[in-house]
Known about the structure:
The protein contains 16 helices and 13 strands. It is of the alpha/beta class.
Amino acid sequence: MSDLILQNFFEKKKKIAVVGLGYVGLPIALELAKKFSVIGFDISASRVEMMRNKIDPSKELNSSSFEGRDIYFTCDLEDLKTAQFYIVAVPTPVDKYQTPDLTPLIKASETLSKVVKKGDYVVFESTVYPGCTEEDCIPIIEKGSGLKASADFFVGYSPERINPGDTLHTLTKVKKVVSGCSPESLEVIAGVYESIVEVGVFRASSIKTAEAAKVIENTQRDLNIALMNELSQIFDIMGINTYDVLEAAGTKWNFLKFQPGLVGGHCIGVDPYYLTYKAMQLGYRPQIILSGRGINDGMAAYIAKKVVQQLIGLKKNPQSCRVLIMGATFKEDVSDIRNSKIFDLYNELKGYHIQLDIIDSHASKSEVLHEYKVELSDKISSHYDAVIVAVPHKAYKELSEEYFAEILTDDAFIVDLKNIYKDKFSKISRWTL
């Protein structure tokens, strides 16, 4: 039966729709459109218009990625009704209290409740806590549609593994975890994804298992980075260079090579809170996970304090100092500013009344102003008392010591957060985590 259902999609008698066309949804939609008839749905009319003109609003894909694809971009609900297989890839952020914000997911589920029909499939890709698909999303679809999951329509969960800026671990080259509400639905869902993922899929035992697998992937990374951040603070007190220690320890075959740093973005700095939120709802307060989150969330304040201490150590009044922050995105060589911890650092330094400039050619000036109420500088000035190279963009890695000498005062210093200038500077003082 599953083979017959899949055949209808391969023969384009039935359509697949992707709801939410951001960093996750658009690559999936375009890849599926190589083999299936696809509807790309997004609530933003301006974004839809850009994609119709072969422009990726997230600046991850070039125009050639749109060529030869059987896809129709729309924000019209009537178009969405013509699909029979729906993939939901909307954001799942946290609010200012670090509580999961399911608003986009709930709205997407409400949208699906207006279009889902008997025999349709709905697959969620958004990162959630275990149980969210079945306890929060399905009831919304059932209520609005009058249909019952597992009887009238079928549900699955396949966690996204898109890594912005990563040209190696792309969608087709990373094994895809899939799950379904029944054995047959699992095979249909797996069949769709197997057709585009070169390295195959992993069939999880249940939807909850797949949800849990996703959320712990980034929780594990978060905890390892938290350990590195704590070690960097300890080694700083001891007068030891953290990266020298990591280089030495990394010679052991089973040492995990993580590095200290600011932990932002829409995955590592967010996903653990989905797990801890659900755990506390069930009466268990996670200790290790929340401790790691506390360390990572506190790194901006720690770095700002170190900058101020160094300025004072140079007999400078921080309120009279000018500091340049290079980089505003959450990671190198991407335009994504979501949950960027650079702005936490910016605000911490502002708290000391330091005069600040911040630059980043990758980031949208208007988006930064709208999201963080911070204005990116158009150009670099000179006579800075310190420069913080916060994001290791490729262009920054290529800068010479002479370049920095021209924009720094005589007794200034560099804060090289990711240690990209190791063994490259001999005259300018450099501090790193």
